[in-house]
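Attaching the record inline, Q. Sequence:
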Amino acid sequence: MRYWDASVLVCLCVEESDSAAARRLASGGIATWSVSAVEIAAAIERRSREGSLDAAGRAAARTALSELTAAWIEISALAAVRERALRLVATHALRAADAMQLGAALVAVSDRPQGHEFVCADVRLRDAASREGFNVLP
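Structure, as predicted:
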Protein backbone atom coordinates (compact mmCIF):
# COMPACT_ATOMS: atom_id res chain seq x y z
CA MET A 1 0.00 0.00 0.00
CA ARG A 2 1.25 3.47 -0.87
CA TYR A 3 -0.11 6.26 1.32
CA TRP A 4 0.11 9.86 0.03
CA ASP A 5 0.29 13.01 2.13
CA ALA A 6 -1.44 16.11 0.73
CA SER A 7 1.93 17.91 0.50
CA VAL A 8 2.96 15.76 -2.44
CA LEU A 9 -0.51 15.28 -3.94
CA VAL A 10 -0.45 19.00 -4.77
CA CYS A 11 2.27 18.15 -7.34
CA LEU A 12 -0.29 16.08 -9.23
CA CYS A 13 -2.60 19.08 -9.55
CA VAL A 14 -0.17 21.99 -9.99
CA GLU A 15 3.00 21.71 -12.06
CA GLU A 16 6.01 21.81 -9.75
CA SER A 17 9.60 20.57 -9.87
CA ASP A 18 8.52 17.26 -8.28
CA SER A 19 5.46 16.70 -10.50
CA ALA A 20 7.08 14.24 -12.94
CA ALA A 21 8.39 12.06 -10.10
CA ALA A 22 5.01 12.21 -8.36
CA ARG A 23 3.20 11.14 -11.54
CA ARG A 24 5.50 8.11 -11.85
CA LEU A 25 4.72 7.10 -8.26
CA ALA A 26 0.97 7.64 -8.74
CA SER A 27 0.75 4.70 -11.12
CA GLY A 28 0.90 2.46 -8.04
CA GLY A 29 -2.37 3.85 -6.68
CA ILE A 30 -3.12 6.45 -4.03
CA ALA A 31 -4.51 6.13 -0.52
CA THR A 32 -4.91 9.31 1.53
CA TRP A 33 -6.76 10.93 4.45
CA SER A 34 -10.27 12.18 3.72
CA VAL A 35 -9.26 15.78 4.48
CA SER A 36 -6.44 15.77 1.90
CA ALA A 37 -8.76 17.19 -0.76
CA VAL A 38 -9.35 20.27 1.41
CA GLU A 39 -5.61 20.69 2.03
CA ILE A 40 -4.92 20.45 -1.71
CA ALA A 41 -7.75 22.86 -2.59
CA ALA A 42 -6.33 25.34 -0.06
CA ALA A 43 -2.89 25.08 -1.68
CA ILE A 44 -4.39 25.66 -5.13
CA GLU A 45 -6.38 28.69 -3.96
CA ARG A 46 -3.38 30.14 -2.10
CA ARG A 47 -1.31 29.94 -5.31
CA SER A 48 -4.14 31.60 -7.21
CA ARG A 49 -4.45 34.44 -4.68
CA GLU A 50 -0.67 34.95 -4.65
CA GLY A 51 -0.62 35.16 -8.45
CA SER A 52 1.58 32.13 -9.13
CA LEU A 53 -1.41 30.34 -10.71
CA ASP A 54 -3.54 32.11 -13.32
CA ALA A 55 -7.27 31.46 -13.89
CA ALA A 56 -6.64 28.73 -16.47
CA GLY A 57 -4.08 27.06 -14.21
CA ARG A 58 -6.47 27.23 -11.27
CA ALA A 59 -9.26 25.64 -13.32
CA ALA A 60 -6.92 22.88 -14.53
CA ALA A 61 -5.69 22.24 -11.00
CA ARG A 62 -9.25 22.00 -9.64
CA THR A 63 -10.14 19.57 -12.45
CA ALA A 64 -7.07 17.47 -11.65
CA LEU A 65 -8.10 17.45 -7.98
CA SER A 66 -11.60 16.23 -8.89
CA GLU A 67 -10.12 13.43 -10.98
CA LEU A 68 -7.76 12.44 -8.17
CA THR A 69 -10.48 12.34 -5.51
CA ALA A 70 -12.58 10.12 -7.76
CA ALA A 71 -9.72 7.65 -8.13
CA TRP A 72 -7.98 7.50 -4.76
CA ILE A 73 -8.74 5.34 -1.73
CA GLU A 74 -9.86 7.60 1.09
CA ILE A 75 -9.23 6.87 4.77
CA SER A 76 -12.12 8.36 6.75
CA ALA A 77 -12.13 6.53 10.10
CA LEU A 78 -12.00 9.69 12.23
CA ALA A 79 -11.94 8.09 15.68
CA ALA A 80 -9.21 5.62 14.75
CA VAL A 81 -7.13 8.31 13.04
CA ARG A 82 -7.56 10.71 15.97
CA GLU A 83 -6.47 8.02 18.43
CA ARG A 84 -3.24 7.46 16.54
CA ALA A 85 -2.68 11.18 16.00
CA LEU A 86 -2.88 11.81 19.74
CA ARG A 87 -0.03 9.35 20.24
CA LEU A 88 1.92 10.76 17.31
CA VAL A 89 1.93 14.36 18.56
CA ALA A 90 3.34 13.11 21.87
CA THR A 91 6.00 11.04 20.08
CA HIS A 92 7.06 13.24 17.14
CA ALA A 93 7.39 16.99 16.48
CA LEU A 94 4.30 17.13 14.26
CA ARG A 95 1.60 19.69 13.59
CA ALA A 96 -1.95 18.47 14.15
CA ALA A 97 -2.77 18.06 10.45
CA ASP A 98 0.44 16.09 9.85
CA ALA A 99 -0.31 13.83 12.80
CA MET A 100 -3.75 13.16 11.32
CA GLN A 101 -2.16 12.30 7.95
CA LEU A 102 0.27 9.86 9.58
CA GLY A 103 -2.52 8.50 11.76
CA ALA A 104 -4.59 7.84 8.63
CA ALA A 105 -1.62 6.06 7.05
CA LEU A 106 -1.31 3.83 10.12
CA VAL A 107 -5.04 3.04 9.96
CA ALA A 108 -4.69 2.21 6.26
CA VAL A 109 -2.02 -0.42 7.04
CA SER A 110 -3.63 -1.71 10.24
CA ASP A 111 -0.74 -0.32 12.30
CA ARG A 112 1.80 -2.44 10.39
CA PRO A 113 3.81 0.09 8.34
CA GLN A 114 6.74 -2.21 7.51
CA GLY A 115 6.73 -2.93 3.79
CA HIS A 116 4.38 -0.04 3.03
CA GLU A 117 5.23 3.29 1.42
CA PHE A 118 4.52 6.81 2.59
CA VAL A 119 4.79 9.51 -0.11
CA CYS A 120 5.45 12.93 1.37
CA ALA A 121 7.24 16.23 0.70
CA ASP A 122 7.23 17.60 4.27
CA VAL A 123 10.54 17.01 6.09
CA ARG A 124 9.17 16.59 9.63
CA LEU A 125 6.38 14.30 8.48
CA ARG A 126 8.82 12.24 6.38
CA ASP A 127 11.02 11.78 9.44
CA ALA A 128 8.10 10.74 11.65
CA ALA A 129 6.76 8.31 9.03
CA SER A 130 10.18 6.75 8.68
CA ARG A 131 10.54 6.38 12.45
CA GLU A 132 7.09 4.75 12.54
CA GLY A 133 8.36 2.15 10.06
CA PHE A 134 7.17 3.32 6.64
CA ASN A 135 9.40 3.30 3.57
CA VAL A 136 9.33 7.03 2.74
CA LEU A 137 9.22 8.20 -0.89
CA PRO A 138 10.42 9.94 -2.97
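The first helix runs from residue 6 to 9. The radius of gyration is 15 Å.

More tomorrow.
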